[in-house]
Automatic annotation (TrEMBL):
SUPFAM superfamilies: RNI-like. Gene3D superfamilies: Ribonuclease Inhibitor. Keywords: Ubl conjugation pathway. Residues 64-187 form the F-box/LRR-repeat protein 15-like leucin rich repeat domain. This is F-box/LRR-repeat protein 15-like leucin rich repeat domain-containing protein. It comes from Oppiella nova. GO terms for cellular component: cytoplasm.
Length: 189
């Protein structure tokens, strides 16, 4: 029953939002959310999973305005592109928790750009992104020393070799999801 009009009334004069969870809000659109991000540079948690009416302008504004961002949930946001993820990586160095599940346009290069700049990553979901390969896992092994949770289920292009590197170098890893990864076998696990 919460509507776009209600959201506008509530958020219109807010200047200190830190946690914003709009997951599955089908009514949220970029013109409605952009001013909120602009006026709230202290956002540390943003969940816009399943919001289909947004554009990459949201992520570019978030990257330039919210440097202390720690959690970003974008699951099922098929509109997310590689440039936006690179921009987040270049600007949001405090990022600890990132869910990019089913963000199909994310590439190895953009994921690597993000990983090499965000050394505090503890939780990362790259599930069902077909462009992700072992190159991304190598970058994680080299840069994400505090990684505790990794979901690469449905990433058909990763192999045992990439999983072995994660196991070897990510010593704090406690959860690994590799379901539906046809080239990951019991050998690496």
């Amino acid at each position: 029953r919460f509507t776009a009009h209600s959201f506008h009334i509530i958020s219109n004069d807010c200047k200190n939002i830190r946690i914003l969870n709009l997951s599955s809000c089908k009514w949220i659109c970029s013109p409605l959310l952009l001013p909120v991000i602009q006026c709230n540079p202290n956002i540390v948690v943003l969940d816009i999973s399943g919001c289909y009416e947004l554009t990459n302008d949201i992520l570019h504004k978030l990257a330039s305005n919210c440097k202390s961002l720690k959690t970003l949930k974008l699951q099922d946001c098929h509109w997310v592109n590689a440039n936006a993820i690179t921009d987040i990586g270049l600007n949001c160095h405090q990022l600890e928790d990132l869910n990019l599940g089913s963000c199909w346009e994310v590439s190895d290069d953009s994921a690597i750009d993000l990983i090499t700049n965000c050394h505090n990553l503890k939780q990362l979901s790259l599930s069902k992104i077909y462009g992700i390969t072992d190159r991304t896992l190598f970058a994680l092994a080299s840069n994400a020393k505090h990684l505790e949770y990794l979901d690469v289920s449905g990433c058909w292009r990763i192999t045992d070799y990439g999983i072995r590197k994660i196991g070897e170098y990510c010593s704090e890893l406690s959860h690994l999801k590799v379901g539906d990864c046809r080239d990951v076998t019991d050998e690496s696990l």
